[in-house]
TrEMBL record:
InterPro entries: ARM-like (IPR011989), ARM-type_fold (IPR016024), Armadillo (IPR000225), RSP14 (IPR042856), TPR_DAAF5 (IPR057978). Pfam families: TPR_DNAAF5 (PF25757). Coiled coil: none annotated. It comes from Larimichthys crocea. Transmembrane segments: none annotated. This is Radial spoke head 14-like protein. It comes from the Eukaryota. Residues 79-256 form the Dynein axonemal assembly factor 5 TPR repeats domain.
Amino acid sequence: MAASLIDPSRAPVAFGRRAVPQLFEELQQRPEAARRHRALNSLCDLMHDPERVYQTVTGGQSGAGLTVFVLQDKETVRQRDSEAVRQRGSEAVRQQALLSSSLLPPLSQLLDDPSSSCRRSVHRVLKRLTLLPAGADALLTLVPKLMLKLRQEKEEEEVQALILSTLSSCSYQDPRPALANDGVSLLGHILSHRSTNIRREAADALMALSVCRDGKEQVCEQNLLPVLVGLLQDEDLEVQVNAVGVIMFTVTITTGTHSETNQYNR
């Protein structure tokens, strides 16, 4: 009867504080893919407990944590690793633990992973991290790379929307990295995207850039006010609201006021 309760997709877990270190020890032994997958499944289960978060970041007493495993060759293992990190980034306490770890650099390398599901999980982690000011600040160095991903237009629409949301949060924290990488021009191009979700996120990111004077001036220089006025008729209310936000910020400078006046006088 007891045997029927054993989940073959999970590795056996030790009792109490020994549970996390034991699973990391098993992973460090580099077992075959099936055993490795079972250990990662059990580790993900444990991370639903906030008290386990610090241990999963540091790897118990090993000091390695998931950093050791997040850049593996096997696609299924990379996907499970990124899923584990995604779970750990789902609450504020977990986000803080992730930010205090050494996991962000190897995690950022997975933005170029050949697996689309792995990249999607990573982008979900990044988006959640930016819900904290410290998270948005920590990810500012990734802004140029994220913008390059948007320019390449190779990602699926969900990932593009995630990238735009991350850029938006980072830019509200500090718009300079995006502005320095021609962010206004890029976002202006995306404003006409066929996807409502992407238009919404692009308009929000542009609003973040238009808070500062440099962003307002670039909106005018790129002649984006007519495009934004057109979005006031968008089928999506949030797109309209975000477009209004950009317009309101922009018209606070003389150039923006003149551009808006000329637009309505046509």
